[in-house]
Structure formats: C-alpha cells, structure tokens
Amino acid sequence: MAGAAQYSDERAREIIAAHMGLEGPAMPILHALQEEFGYVPDAAVKQMAEALNISRAEMHGVVTFYHDFHRAPHGRHTLKICRAESCQSMGAERQARNFLDKLKLDWGGTTPDGALSVEAVYCLGLCAHSPSALYDGEPIGRVDAGKLDEIAEEARD
Amino acid sequence: MAKIYIPLDMAAVAMGADRLAAAVAKEAAARGDNVEIVRNGSRGMLWLEPLIEVETPAGRVGYGPAKVNDVASLFDAGFLSGGAHALSIGKVDDHPWMKRQNRITFARCGVIDPLSMDDYEAHGGGAGLARAFQIGPAATIEEVTKSGLRGRGGAGFPTGIKWKTVADAPADRRYVVVNADEGDSGTFADRMIMEGDPLALIEGMIICGYAINGSKGFVYLRSEYPQAAVVFGKAIEVARNAGWLGDNVRGSGFAFDIELRIGAGAYVCGEETSLLESLEGKRGIVRAKPPLPAHVGLFGKPTVVNNVLSMATAPMILEKGSQHYAELGVGRSRGTMPLQIAGNVKYGGLCEVPFGLTLGEIVNDIGGGTLSGRPVRAVQVGGPLGAYLPPWLFDTVFDYEAFAAKDSLIGHGGLVVFDDTVDMSWMARFGMEFCAIESCGKCTPCRLGSTRGVETIDKIRSGQDVDANIELLKDLCHTMKFGSLCALGGFAPYPVESALRHFPEDFRKPALEAAE
After folding, report:
1. Both A101 and A148 in a single domain?
2. Inter-chain CB proximity A125 and B187 less than 8 Å
3. Residue A118 lies in a domain
4. Residue pairs spanning A and B at CB distance below 8 A
5. What pLDDT is recorded for position B516?
6. pLDDT of B383-392, one tens digit each?
7. Which residue from B234, B257, B236, B222 is spatially nearest to B412, judged by alpha carbons?
8. C-alpha distances in angstroms, B447 versus B25, B58, B441, B454?
9. Least CB-CB distance to B280: which of A24, A28, A67?
C-alpha cells in the first residue's frame, strides 16, 4: 500500500489502545494496523495477544484466517482482480491468467520492484460490468487487457 | 438552478461516475450554468451507468451511459432542461425497465440523496419507525410476521418468527446484527441499498432493536465494498445528528446505537455463526447449531441476524402495513424479490419484482439475453453455491419452493448468465476450488471434500477413468451435501451436480478428443 508507515512498537501500542473500548476489538485493530503499516507485523500480533489477553497462537490463528491480512510488506500498489463466476462468464479467468503470466506472477504475488501486488478477489459486486477489478481501492468495470497493462505501467511510477 | 443526479454507486463509479461528475461541474462553471449535483444511488439500470438524471418540470430525464467526452454535447443539447440527445432515455420512471417493477425495498434507491435526512423523510422515511413506536414491540413483530417477509440472505427463514424468538429469549442484552457480507457472485443488492438508501437499513435496524428490546446493532460489511463502507459510515453520522441514534431515539426514550464493522475477505463469514465469531474477534469458524443465534448469538446473547434487504424492507412493511406486502408474490414466497441480473447479459442490473416470474422471462425479457450475442447456455442462480440451469428449465418459476423442487436455490436473488462458450466442467471445478479456498476448515466434508473434488474433476477433465471418477464425484457431492456443518460445504455440490446433470457432454470432452 502506498505511503505505509515504518513499524514501531510505540505506534502499534497506540493503535491497539485506541480500539480497546470496542466490543470485540480484534478485527478493527487488525484493519487499523494494516492501514498504518501496510501489513500486520508479527511484533504487533504479539502486542495484540497481550492486550486482548489471549495466547499468541490464538491471535496468530485469527490473523491467518482472513485473506485480507498480510503478514509481510506488500507491493506499493494493490490490484485485486475478480475471478468469481460473473467475471468468468465474461472471460476474466483467461484475461487474468495472461496478465499474471506477462508479469511472471502468481495470484498474491508482487512484482520484483515492489510496485504492484496482484490478488484474486471473489466478487466486488460489480457483476453487471464484468470483468471487474479494484486498484488501490478504486473500482474498475469492464476491465480489459489494455486497462490491466495500463495499471501495471502506472504502478511502476 | 438545475438539479442533476449522478450516482455515487460503486458500479457507476467503476464506469467513471466520479470523473463524469467532475466534468459536469467544470463544464457548468465554464458556461456559467448554475447546477446542483446530487450524488444519488443507482436506479439499478446498471448497463446505463453512469446515468445522469436532470430534474425537469415533467419529471426526471435520464442520459446514459454518459462518458466525460459526452459532457460538452449534453450541454449543447440543453440537457439541463431535458433536451434531446443520443444518450437520452427519456423520463426515467417511464423506462420499461422501471415500469415493470414493484419497488418496495428499493423504492427510494437512486431517487433520493442517500445522505439527506430531509430527502429521506420527504420520501416516506421514518414513517415505519414512527408507527412501530406507536403500536409497540409486540405488534411490530406481528406486522413483520404477517407480511410473510422471509430472510433475503438465502435461507428464506421467516423474519418475524426470528424476531419473536429473540424477543422471547430471556436476557439482559440482545443484539441486532446485519449480515452485509454479500459474497455471492452476481449479487449486489445489499451494496446498492447501503450506498443508495442507507437510512432505510438504519431505520430497519432501529425498528428491529425496538421490537426485540435490543440496544446495539452491528453491520458486518465485506471489505470488498469500500464505497458502501464510506457511504454507510456517513449515514450513521447523519442518523445520529438527526437524533435517530443514541440514548433517546427520536424522543421515544428508546436507546439504540449502530456500529459498522468490516470483514476481511472471508466468504464463509456470510454464514451467520461464522459472522458472529468474526465480530467477536475470532477466526470465522462456523458454530454448530443448535443453539441458534436467536438464543445464543453475539457474545452469547440472543441476536437477530438479518440480511440487509430483509432489514431494509421492515420500515416499508410497518409504514404500509403487512397486508400491502403480503398481497404480492406467489405461494409461500410473499412480497418482492430484488433480482440481480449479471454476467454475460445485455441489460444487467437490479430489478425488484414480485415473486412469480419465470427464469426465462428474467433472463431473456428483462436481461435481454447475452451481451456477446451468442446463445445462452447456462444461468447460475443463487451465487457460487447455486445450481447451473439450462435453457430447457427456463419455465421454472422464480420462488423459493419451485427452485428447491428443481434441486436449486434462489439464494440472495443473483443470476449469472453464461453464453455457449462456457466450459461447464471448468465451472464445476471452480465451484469446488472456491469451496476449498473459502472453507473455514471446521468440518471434514467441506475442508477435505472440496480439495478432493478439485482433484477428481481434474482427472475427469484429463480423461482418466471418466465413468468411475464421475461416480466418485457424485458420491463425494452426496457426502458434502449431507455431512457438512453449514451451507458452504452443504451447497457447494449444487453447481457441480447441476453441471453434471445438465451438461454431461462437457465432462467427456477430453475422452472424445483422445478418441479422435
């Protein structure tokens, strides 16, 4: 994610503390940590376990259950390409495969220059404009090969 | 001053609505035209997005799909007063797509400014809640029960009975939880409500909270819907500032508040018990039922878990009375169903009609057939766990019972159209693959069965012992169907079995090729 902050124990502690008043604060904390640092660092997971008074194993289990949470830094930009049925009905699977092959990536991979991570997503709710994608949070309908190449190019800057 | 509507709906934005709105504002300023741009929800005619609407004395006139480079010509054509233009669709309310609908849940969606309480109230918003306060909790539940409203998430459980169960469960705290983890491919109705008429969902939650004597509501929204998160988050503030949330809801003395929570990319969290686990901050692992969430739900307290559409329909039922809703529909499927038509289809969008249309009417008459212009080969109804139906079953009536009788489900009302280039053995494989990716891992049939399913279909596709492996696959489907803990593993066989049943030739292609 563009503009992610460097990890610090201090900052993680603040983020965790800010959410402790919520009922069931774990998910909001994980989202906030990832928003801040671009991923969920192990050191922050350890702090979370202490704050929530659960074992580190249990906390680790929560982080790893959800597809959205990354345990290592990601690319500066993220492209999520939908591969659910509606997008497949419009040829998304082949299109995505060609794009990944061109970048020599697999799903979830990041380009060697750290510019772009490409993830699979299962439905963005843009099914009347399949195939669809989400680039750094911006929705794109009727995605074609040209648009994907454009994004890969733009991400490098 | 001319009033222009350009949707903020994520689908419209995905087709350039934000850039269009900026271009319209710029062009108006350059020409010295005084315009007010309202960012509304979508009308549901998604193939026309971005759809610009202009308020004229005769009604709202639409232009779409409009691109940035159409803006100058729209101004030239005098679109601010409804002038003729190639993109004009005339009066939006007179469009055939709108005319055939009976909008109840989506009555305001696309019509109003979603973040204006004044606009909301001017279009009937708040009347349902006012009536609920007037008739009291027990009569409110009675109204919802009598309307025949069933859960729109997929299972179709009667909403009023769920509310009554929670209200009757002894507890010091009760929760209202809205399931906005709309993960099914081909569905976007929840998203459209949360972006286009979020105050209706909030009103529905308050009504529910009042009816069951609950004090807190959560909306669990999937992370794949960033726009809905933004709009709904703002709507909560609008409601709070208007005195709809907090210690004294609209001066009634009833206290209620709502919190928006975001999921993290787990499809299984659309299953209600898994959703509750996730809200509590745990892995989204499915709970065994019983106990039902209505008895032991969020943090162990009695909890109503309703889909966005069910909850957002409650205000209208209270406002107009249960009879008005119950008069629509067929058999035990009462009221309307917001159909979502998607995939390879000419006119994709959301169409709210009473139950009772046939599948063929929906796909061909409303949807206009495929976008590619090729013949329709299959329609998947009800998301990734729904069956694939061939054109020879297009006379199936769209309601809960008729679909169940054809070994399929209507789920959340999504339909994905495929043309004749689809490879159904690949889609069956994908169904199993998706289940393997998304399985929570608690029960064996789902966790292991889905992976074995992928492997078995791979063998079939490569021509290995095709007959024996098809038998094995059927057996596996049977085990998953009857041995899984929840609908993910339990329904994942539907797309696979329906593909096998209706499109057997697609499972024998490699063998044919090998023989040639």
Report:
1. yes
2. yes
3. yes
4. 153
5. 42
6. 999 999 999 9
7. B222
8. 53, 58, 5, 12
9. A24
Residue A71, domain member (yes or no): no
Buried b (16+ CB within 10 A) or exposed e, B326-339: eebbbeebbbbbbb
Number of structural domains, chain A?
2
A54/A20 same-domain check: yes
Whether A3 maps to a domain, the answer reads no
List chain A residues with CB under 8 Å of B299: 23-24
Secondary structure element (H or E) that encloses residue B239, with its range: helix B226-241
| Together in a domain, A84 and A145 | yes
Instruction: Check whether residue A115 and residue A139 sit in a common domain.
Output: yes
B34 burial class (0-12, 13-18, 19+ CB within 10 angstroms)?
Answer: exposed
Considering only the beta carbons, identify the residue of A30, A66, A89 that sits closest to B417: A89
Q: Is B1 exposed, middle or buried (CB count within 10 Å of its CB: 0-12, 13-18, 19+)?
A: exposed
> Which residue out of B271, B416, B422, B447 would a mutagenesis test of the A interface target, given it has the greatest number of A Cβ atoms within 10 Å?
B416
Contact residues, A window 83-122, toward B, CB-based 8 Å cutoff? 84-90, 121-122
Is the Cβ of A21 closer than 8 Å to some Cβ of chain B?
Answer: no
Clarify whether residues A59 and A108 are in a common domain.
Answer: no
Per the CB < 8 Å rule, is A125 touching B11?
A: yes
- Measure the CA–CA gap between B155 and B270, rounded to whole angstroms: 12
A30, A45, A65 — which closes off a domain? A65
Distances (CA, A) of B120 to B113, B136, B307: 8, 23, 21
In this complex, do B46 and A128 lie within 8 Å of one another by their Cβ atoms?
yes
Best of A33, A127, A129, A140 to mutate (most B CBs within 10 Å, chain B): A127
Q: What is the pLDDT of residue B116?
A: 98
Boundaries of domain holding A58? 9-65
Residue numbers in B near A66 (CB within 8 A): 263-266, 284
Q: Could you tell me the two tokens for B67?
A: 């691109």
- Give which of A64, A89, A107, A151 to mutate to test B binding, by max B Cβ within 10 Å: A89
Prediction ipTM score? 0.97
Residue B248 tokens, joined: 């004294």
Q: What is the pLDDT of residue B513?
A: 53
Q: Tell me, yes or no, whether A115 lies in a domain.
A: yes
* A105 shares its domain with A56: no
Residue B202: phi and psi, rounded to 5, are -65, -45
Residues A81 and A107 in one domain: yes
HEC string of B246-303 equals ECCHHHCCCCEEEEEEECCCCHHHHCHHHHHHHHCCCCCCCCCCCCCCCCCCHHHCCE
- Give me the pLDDT at residue B514, please: 47
State whether A128 and A83 are in the same domain.
Answer: yes
Using CA coordinates, name the residue in chain A closest to B45: A128
Element (H, E) at A64: helix A56-65
Which residue, A38, A65, A92, sits at the end of a domain? Answer: A65
Which residue of chain B is at minimal alpha-carbon distance from A29?
B281
Q: How confident is the model at residue B378 (pLDDT cuts 50, 70, 90)?
A: very high
Q: Which domains does chain B have, with CATH numbers?
A: 2-99 (3.40.30.10), 125-326 (3.40.50.11540), 329-419 (3.10.20.600), 424-515 (1.20.1440.230)
Å between A99 CA and nearest CA of chain B: 19
Residue in A with minimal Cα distance to B284 = A65
Average of pLDDT values for B431-454?
Answer: 97
pLDDT in tens, B283-294: 999 999 999 999
